[in-house]
Amino acid sequence: MTRGEHTYAPERVGVLARFREDIAVAKSKDPASAGTLTMALTYPGLQAIWAHRLIHRLWHGSTPRLLVRLAAYLVRMVTGIEIHPGARIGRRFFIDHGMGVVIGETAEIGDDVMLYHAVTLGGRSMDRVKRHPTLGDQVTVGAGARILGPVIIGARAQVGANAVVVHDVPPGTVAVGIPARAVSPQEVEPALMYYI
């Protein structure tokens, strides 16, 4: 993936089909997953992404921006997850636990991405430009990680727990440390990858 190339490509998928897809992904990625109804009612990551999909459509429609921002604010109050209405998020996105996740306005997230709790996809500029990260397909971001600025996290890359990423991460590598550096997956202890 090169700078300026976007992975986000919204597809027309029915609401019920997307709901089932999200539940299936959550069940596959969470070993503590429960029944469908329990997950729908008690998984803030699922609730936040479902609400975001509606809010994102409203953001790009004729609904007054203040009302859209208020809806996003209410979702943040209920779930503990803050997703700006302008953020672009692909399919089969899963946030595990979710508390403290922040996703900025110009963030772009590909398909099959997973975030753990307390992740920030933030900006480093006050200018009204592309100022938030782009995550490629199949990226996993560990708990407490901070990805800042218009950096690109390549497809299948992983960002370790509590890493601070301010530079691009090549596809298929692992970013660890403060500031983060890219290493091969074999150099990282798997048990310490996502949780601290």
From TrEMBL:
<keyword id="KW-0012">Acyltransferase</keyword>
<dbReference type="InterPro" id="IPR042122">
    <property type="entry name" value="Ser_AcTrfase_N_sf"/>
</dbReference>
<keyword id="KW-0677">Repeat</keyword>
<protein>
    <recommendedName>
        <fullName>Serine acetyltransferase</fullName>
        <ecNumber>2.3.1.30</ecNumber>
    </recommendedName>
</protein>
<dbReference type="InterPro" id="IPR001451">
    <property type="entry name" value="Hexapep"/>
</dbReference>
<dbReference type="InterPro" id="IPR011004">
    <property type="entry name" value="Trimer_LpxA-like_sf"/>
</dbReference>
<keyword id="KW-0198">Cysteine biosynthesis</keyword>
<keyword id="KW-0808">Transferase</keyword>
<dbReference type="GO" id="GO:0006535">
    <property type="term" value="P:cysteine biosynthetic process from serine"/>
</dbReference>
<dbReference type="InterPro" id="IPR053376">
    <property type="entry name" value="Serine_acetyltransferase"/>
</dbReference>
<dbReference type="Pfam" id="PF00132">
    <property type="entry name" value="Hexapep"/>
</dbReference>
<dbReference type="InterPro" id="IPR045304">
    <property type="entry name" value="LbH_SAT"/>
</dbReference>
<dbReference type="InterPro" id="IPR005881">
    <property type="entry name" value="Ser_O-AcTrfase"/>
</dbReference>
<dbReference type="GO" id="GO:0009001">
    <property type="term" value="F:serine O-acetyltransferase activity"/>
</dbReference>
<comment type="similarity">
    <text>Belongs to the transferase hexapeptide repeat family.</text>
</comment>
<dbReference type="InterPro" id="IPR018357">
    <property type="entry name" value="Hexapep_transf_CS"/>
</dbReference>
<keyword id="KW-0028">Amino-acid biosynthesis</keyword>
<comment type="pathway">
    <text>Amino-acid biosynthesis; L-cysteine biosynthesis; L-cysteine from L-serine: step 1/2.</text>
</comment>
<dbReference type="GO" id="GO:0005737">
    <property type="term" value="C:cytoplasm"/>
</dbReference>
